[in-house]
Amino acid sequence: MNEDAAPEVPKDVEVPAGESQPARPVRDIWDKIQILVQPLGGLFTALAIALLGFFSSNFLNHQQSAETNARLYSELMSKREESESALRKDMFQTIIGSFVSGKGDFDSRVLNLELLAYNFHESLNLKPLFLDMKRRIALEMAHSQSAAKRVEYQGYMDRLERVAREIARKQVIVLEGVGAKFDRSIDLTTADPTEDPIEPATLTLDSLHATIGLDILSVDKANKELDVSLTVETPDPKLGRQTKTAEFTVSYYDFPMIDNTRLTGGDRCAVVLNAFSKHSADLTVVLFPGAYASLKEKPYYNEVMESIRQENERMSK
To answer: CA-CA distances (angstroms) from residue 177 to 124, 200, 223, 271, 297?
Structure first.
């Protein structure tokens, strides 16, 4: 024990007169602030807990409301799709039934084909129906002795071509939005249009660079058809340069989502006849992903797995 330290004087003991009291500790500004703030600590803690509970409850209510709205929207869309599917099913059965039965005049049958084409052109190959209707109309026109009847049958022909060109145009607009295309015009006034070279073009689709060449093999002016040869060359880092060749007939009734050439990797290339006259034929070549082919075209299993693998590699980089 330190002998120099002053002894502590109890509070209830009176100090005799003449003797000095021990000095009180001096408090600085921080001590005073601590004294003032210390009672407020509990208040601030309670306020923080209340605010946290309020915002948490508000967030949970907002999230629950969003989930409820999303579920309601999903149910409404599901019911809408079901009703549309039922309507399309009834329409399809009615229209197809008219073709199978063979009843009705040309006007009603052409109208049914127009309805079928405008509503189901992305999922059905309608070319056989168009060609069959065209053949029937041409046969009646050839045997008709009345000029008025021939004009009427020619009107049916024009309606078939008009609806086919309109559908092909709509499909090309959709496909060029996700792919690439180029246009070429064939001069039909020359002695032999097949001898005229067509300039190839290089189209890019994602990482695919394809050089596409087109050759005219023959021209059928009566039926407005072209026999063409399509060549697609694509570089491959592992297998080298790959070449895909196909020969086919192009008419107004070949729709790109249905009538196309499958390339390596699942991509598609299609040739579309836009216009045909005595002087020229206008063609469009479109390159597009296989996912935008018709609904009846299902991708192969290995193509799906390769696409998933490439997407995972792209996201990991």
So the answer is: 22, 21, 31, 16, 20
Q: Is residue 75 in some structural domain?
A: no
- For 193, the domain range is 180-297
Question: 156 and 47 share a domain?
Answer: no
In a domain, 96, yes or no: yes
CA–CA dist 52, 58 (Å, integer): 10
Q: Tell me: do 88 and 64 sit in the same domain.
A: no
State whether 103 and 136 are in the same domain: yes
What would the pLDDT profile of 165-183 be if each residue is shown by its tens digit? 999 999 999 999 999 999 9
Tell me how many domains the chain contains: 3
pLDDT for res 71: 81
Percentage with pLDDT > 90 across the chain: 35
Query: What residue type is assigned to position 194 of the chain?
Result: T
Q: Are 222 and 243 in contact (CB under 8 A)?
A: no
The Cα 221–Cα 298 span in angstroms is 35
Please tell me which residue, 154 or 59, carries the higher pLDDT value: 154
